[in-house]
Every structure is written in C-alpha cells, then in structure tokens.
Amino acid sequence: MLRRCLVAANWKMNMTVSQALPLAAQLATLTSGPLAEIAVAPPFVALFPVGQVLRPSGVALAAQNCHALSAGAYTGEVSAPMLADLGCRYVIIGHSERRQLFGESDSFIHEKVKAVLEAGLYPILCVGETLEEREHNQTLEVVSKQLQANLAGISSGLGAKLVIAYEPIWAIGTGKTATAQEAQEVHAHIRGWLQQLWGETSKQLRILYGGSVKASNAEELMAKPDIDGALVGGASLQFAEFSAIIEAAKKAMAHKK
Ligand code: PEP
C-alpha cells in the first residue's frame, strides 16, 4: 500500500511571531501533493497568525503539545479542543524533550493521545531510545514498551488517525542520524507491533523518522519501505533546507509507487 508521506516541521521554542510570519509566507508557496503532505508546528503563540497565512495553501497546521483534559483550572495549559478550533490538524505528543525535560510520563502521554483523537485531530506520537539503550541492544524493547503504554485500549477505528514518529534520542539535534537501514529496522518493528494491535489498519499508518533529518539524507531515509516521512527540527527553520527535504520526500515517494 502506498502511504502518502508526511513531512512535519517542528519549530520547537524558536521564532517570535514577527520572525514566523515571513517563513510561513514562504512555506505557503509549497504544495502538499498526492505523494507528500506538509505540516508545520510553530510555538503556541504563533499558531493563529501562522495558521492564517497557511490557510489558503495545502500546508497543515500542527501543535507541539497539548494537555490531556479539555478545559479547567490548569494555568498555562492548552487543550486539544482549543487546537482543533484554531484549525490545527496534527498535535505532536510525547516528544523526547517533553518526556525528558518536562517529566511527561507514559501514562500522561497516553491520556494526551486519547484527548487528541477525541478532539478529531491526528496525534504524532514520538517514541525512541536513548544512546545507552541502543548500545545495550534495547531499542526494540524500549519502543514496544512506549507503544504499549501510550496506545493501550485505543480502538483500531480511532487509531487509524495515528501518526508515529520514531526519533532516536541520540539523533535529535545532534547532527547524528540513524542510518536508513537502522531506521528501517525499527520502523518495520513498529509496524509489526501495530499490526498485532490493530491488524490491517497498521498498513495505512504513517511512521515518520526524526533525528537530524536534512536535505542530504532525507531521500535515502524516505526511500525505505516503512519510512513514511520525517519530523524535522533544526533543518525546518530554514526555508531552502526544508523545501529541499520536501523535494527529496517527493522523489523517494515517486520511486516507491
Ligand atoms: C525533533 O525535534 O523532532 C527533531 C527531530 O529535531 P532535529 O531534526 O533538530 O534533530
């Protein structure tokens, strides 16, 4: 089955609104086509203005996080229904920076995945191992445990909207990338795991790779059978580099057809 690939930009805590708007205007010139879809996750404060600029284009709006509850006395938090109302399509959940720097537990991430699905949005659930875990050959076990804890009890009907991002923590923002073969091995494992959970639905789910993706390695990664796109941090802050990644994704997808 040919899955439409997804290339999602994660701006993290970068870009003031004044810096974001010119970049958003450039991004709005990109076309999401039948082979590749584009999404952009600006910081919360830039979501509305960037969304306005992207609206006429086919580039989707994504958020970097949300709370697990829909409303209430949670000062400083943002809920999934608020993001849906703003025009977001995707929400990144369980990014390793959230897990490691903000202490987000697997059970909290599970609640967030459910909240995003219930709001009618598409979660981009991040999983991945540390360098130490990889060196101890624990990668597949760690990823399976995260999936188990983050997806338990979710029906295949709801799960059909899930996007997974495999992000080896040692490759995020470090310039080190998993080789295409290393990444493919984990992606195939993830798809196999999802098949056990949801059967045929697993074939339509997109599994993105994230970790120092750039124009020079994007095509080789996305040419692999189970790599259906990329979650891009640093390289998404420069238009020329990000648009070259989109072109690489389209090329890789054209070969997969
Ligand atoms: C990320 O933040 O999800 C990421 C993959 O970052 P980078 O591309 O900078 O490694």
General description of the model:
With 257 residues, the chain is an alpha/beta fold. Helix content is 44%, strand content 15%. Helix 5 crosses helix 7, helix 9 (180-198) crosses helix 10 (215-222) and helix 10 (215-222) packs parallel to helix 11. It is globular. Bound molecules: phosphoenolpyruvate (PEP). The site of phosphoenolpyruvate has 14 residues, from strand 8.
Provide a quick synopsis of the model:
The mean pLDDT is 96. The protein is of the alpha/beta class and 257 residues long.
* Helix and strand pattern: EHEHEHEHHEHHHEHEHEH
Mean pLDDT: 96
- Largest sheet report: 8 strands, parallel, barrel
**Number of helix segments?**
11
Strand content of the residues, in percent? 15-25%
What shape does the CA trace take?
A: globular
Structural class: alpha/beta
The low-confidence runs, each spanning 5 or more residues with pLDDT under 50, are none
The amount of helix comes to 40-55%
